[in-house]
Amino acid sequence: MRLRLVSKGTCFSSLLELASEGKIAVVTGSSKGIGLATVRLLKEKGFVTIGVSRSGGGEAHEELRADVSSKEDVRRVVDYVVSKYGKIDVLVNNAGFGVYGYFWETPLDEEEYEVKTLLLGVIYFTKSVLPLMLRRNYGAIVNVVSEAAYVSMPTLLVYSSAKAAVAHFTNGLWASLKGTNVKVSGVYPGPVKTDFTSHPSFKNTEPKFNSLAVPPEKVAKAVWKAIRTGKREIYVPSKLLIEPYFLKLALSFQSLTYFVQRSIYGKKVIF
After folding, report:
1. What H or E segment, with its residue span, contains residue 225?
2. 4-242 — its CATH code?
3. Against a cut of 0.90, is the pTM above it?
């Protein structure tokens, strides 16, 4: 996919002035939901925001139309930002989507693209940006993971698996970078009020977790906390406020987790 700049009406000289005063933040999946809320908050905090999405929409100072599942697109985005601003201070890996249904029912092509977006997109961007941060010994990488990383959800199996891989990647990178000024954090939201269920696979389903969802602005605040503190894991629980503790226990009590999921999601779970 060809990289495309979508102008937001901010002149180049104004952006350079902002860049000299503030910091440069790249946010993937910036056109809606958590990404859009994060862009808005970082702009309030004085960042020059670069949004990356397939649609090219959003409210960042600059919006780049690109696909995070493409190594070429990612490389072009990073090269463009560095050539224009000279640095990237913050990377927020947020882009993603879910395919709903039992594993034997869902299309493999969609699942391959899901894994590329959720996992490889994070790896591609981090691989491109991290050496730049290490050279300056400064920066923050925030991966928006999910509470699903802690439990294998039967009807979001590939999504859960990819998020679990992102969690392990984040934790390992956090440990590897101890002693440097490059921070790595994972933000773990529960249900969030976004259009996550807009994927065609959710047609004719009514996920009950929607009633427990929190606004994306709450996740954006967690991203900001991660940027400031470099804390390894930051949780954004649903209105129940208990999932982080339950989900960690669930690693030891998987069958109990499936029982609770059956109650929440309203679909038969096959053991």
Report:
1. helix 216-229
2. 3.40.50.720
3. no
Structure tokens at 120: 């490889």
Tokens of 197: 């269920």
Burial of 240 (C-beta count, 10 Å sphere; 0-12/13-18/19+): exposed
Would you tell me how many other CB atoms lie within 10 Å of the CB of residue 218? Answer: 16
Count of beta carbons in the 10 Å neighbourhood of residue 21: 9
d(CA 128, CA 230): 20
For residues 88 and 74, the answer to whether their CB atoms sit within 8 Å is: no
Segments making up each domain of the chain, as ranges: 4-242
Please name the amino acid found at residue 75.
Answer: R
Residue with tokens 């309203």: 266
Helix (H) or strand (E) holding 121: helix 121-136
Q: What pLDDT, in 10s, does the model give residues 140-173?
A: 999 999 988 887 788 889 999 999 999 999 999 9
Q: Which residues sit opposite 235 in a β-bridge?
A: 188
Contact 114, 165 (CB under 8 A): no
Q: Which amino acid is at 102?
A: Y
Token pair belonging to 143:
């991966």
Angstrom CA distances, 202 to 14, 98, 105, 168, 197, stand at 43, 9, 13, 27, 6
| Strand partners for 144 | 187
Residue closest to 269 by CA, chosen among 155, 127, 129, 145? 155
pLDDT digits (tens, 9 = 90+) for 189-235: 988 777 766 777 777 666 566 667 788 999 999 999 999 999 999 99
Count the Cβ atoms, other than its own, within 10 Å of residue 154. Answer: 20
Rg (CA), the chain: 18
| Per-position b or e across 33-71, b if 16+ CB within 10 A of its CB | bbbbbbbbbbbeeebbbbbbbbebebebbbbbbbbbbbb
Going by C-alpha positions, the residue among 182, 225, 220 that lies closest to residue 89 is: 182
